[in-house]
Amino acid sequence: MKKIRFSIVLGSALLLISLFTFSAMAETLEWWMGTWQEKAATQLVQEFEEQNPGIKIKTSFIPWDGMHGKYLIALKTGNAPDILSIAVGWGYEWSKAGFLLPLDQFINNSSTDFGDWMAGAWNTGVIEDAVYGIPYRSDCIALFYNKDLFVKAGLDPEQPPQDWNQYLDYAIQLTKKVDGIYGSGLITAGEPLNLATRVLPFVYQNNGSILNNSKTEAVINQKPAVDAIKWVTELYTKYQVEPKSNIQNDAESIMELFKEGKIAMVMGGQYNIPQVLNQTEINLGTALLPKNPTTGKRTVLMGGWNLTITKDAESPESAFKFIEFLSRADNMARLTIALPARAAAYKSQYINKKYETDPLYLVNKEQLNYGILINIPYKQQAKTIIAEEIQNILIGRKGVQKAMDDAAIRIEEIINR
Amino acid sequence: MKWGYEKGIIYILPVLLIIAFIVLFPLVYNIYLSFHQSSIYSPDLNFVGLNNYIKLFNDQSFIAGFKNTIVWTIGSVFFQILLGLIAALLLWRINYGKRVIQTIIMLPWIVPGIAAAASWRWLYHPDFGLINYIFSLFGFKSILWLGDPDLALAAVIVVNVWKMYPFVALMILARLQAIPKSVYEAAHIDGGNFWQIFFHITLPMIRSILSVLTLLLSIWAFNSFTFIYAMTGGGPARSSEIIGLKIYRDALKNMMFGQAASEALVLFAMMLIFSIVYLYYTYNWREESR
Fold first, then answer.
1. Contact B254 A244 (CB under 8 A)
2. What is the ipTM of this complex?
3. Are residues A282 and A220 in the same domain?
4. Is residue A12 in a domain?
5. Count of A–B CB contacts within 8 Å?
6. A76·B236 Cβ contact <8 A
7. What count of other Cβ atoms lies within 10 Å of the Cβ of residue B90?
8. A69 CA to chain B: closest CA distance, Å?
9. Hey, are the CB atoms on A245 and B252 less than 8 Å from each other?
10. What is the pLDDT of residues B144-202, one digit of tens each?
11. Residues of chain B found within 8 Å of residue A93, distances taken between Cβ atoms
12. Longest CA pairwise span in chain A (Å)
């Protein structure tokens, strides 16, 4: 009897030890990404774990609202996960702060053909000659317009506005205040960064900028930037072709107004197209952003998402292995709800074929050719300041020059801290 | 040596230590941070002495936020108490359908804050909102409730009052129900009218709960964040930004932990002074009226 009891105890002990040993052998990596691709990401993680039994992936899906702050706190306090999916605009500051690992060494030793990435997308992960992020999704905003409202206003629905002058002219013609219809929806409230993201393309189209080339001085109060901001804000203040409520409408509310046929022209991403088509009867048109009539530029801010490895990663090699897995053409096509970053992903069976054939979708792809990234220190703060000062213009508290002078002072205070 | 008081202290010491750690550690660390400057680009904290505090009082946005916090707190607490008191008196007096009315009155308190904020944003919408629609029936023009710098804070105060007055009503009602009926019967026999009874019997009887509520609601209003963040984001152009929101922005968006810590300490000091003065006066008042 004693022998049996001893055997049971010994057996149990061995089982427990082996279980502990096995779980210790299985490496666990943490991956944070957005909530919007939870289903695809979960499936991909499962497949990766099946193919790599030694590696477990613990995934957290973070909502967009508050994501930047959550990431930043985690990075700053050393509690970041191994792999982070980051918006392309965040890479510059975080790589300069030392939060992200350069990936060049892994890329050089990898069998993945990184030459297959589209140049515009690839460049979003390159910071001063080193690669910090592997892009998997690219997007940017383009012009959405309501063809039915164009017809009602006597405009040709197949001829969207080509430049700023035409845009203003069309917006005036489209605005029918008696019916509660407005021509333009560029101005937004809510998250200040959204307003800056919509206004800044016009600043850069007009050869303006936030900082000078050496990134030591604010130039947002110089003529090119001020003229561009004046043009945009006058749509609201002088010409009143924007709904008054845009001072309190966030980006989603503006898209709702567009879907309701209350605004004729708005800015939208590729991901908005299915929403508009599925939820409304609107005869949707998409076009490139109107260009600057003097410079001819159609500049837009580059959007998209990159996979990065943080400085807190315990096993960067395994983390890169996971990134390589996600970067396979089929997997990338499954992971993104916008344009994938590499050419081969467009040939995947999982890709939405409309990306290649439907003119509605092709516009956003073409607009990517005009995409730029603003790589400056304290970019989020600078954009917030610009948005706040634009609000001061909109509510009539400040003139354009005064508002931008104040913005320049505040931005310089931050960069020279 | 007698083991009475000392023994008790030993028993509760572990809990005291845990509470001290939970409360004191963040406070002390916050004080430490407020004398330092941090940057996203450096892991180091640089000692800057009183610089953060000096900057604070030269910072127009802090001064504006300070004023907004005072308006927000006084406006919210005053109307929460007033509306809560009226609701409690009504509930106390009515005999029929009391449960149903009580449930309806309590609804705003049950709704999660963020959901309430989202609903109110649409109610306030100039183009689609129910409120402007009702106003338009009487010939009023569309009002930018959340987009007008002169109205935005007041509009959010209304939501804060709507959300919290049921709690006030519930507390006051509980106290009202504990007042012996014989007191009112005696007052009626003596010929007291409604206002005399209210000011000389009801109000003194519920004074203690009103004191506690005022203090609690003030602290909550001072520290509040949700409604303003979700409805106006402090805008337009910071016209509805209160200190709580500014602390969040400076700490979690701008990574200026030192600056945010000094703002938090000023807020803490304000609240502490208010609490001490308030408690001192309400205590003295109670003592005098005995």
1. no
2. 0.77
3. yes
4. no
5. 81
6. no
7. 15
8. 5
9. no
10. 999 899 999 999 999 999 999 999 999 999 999 888 888 888 988 888 888 899 898 89
11. 40-41
12. 98
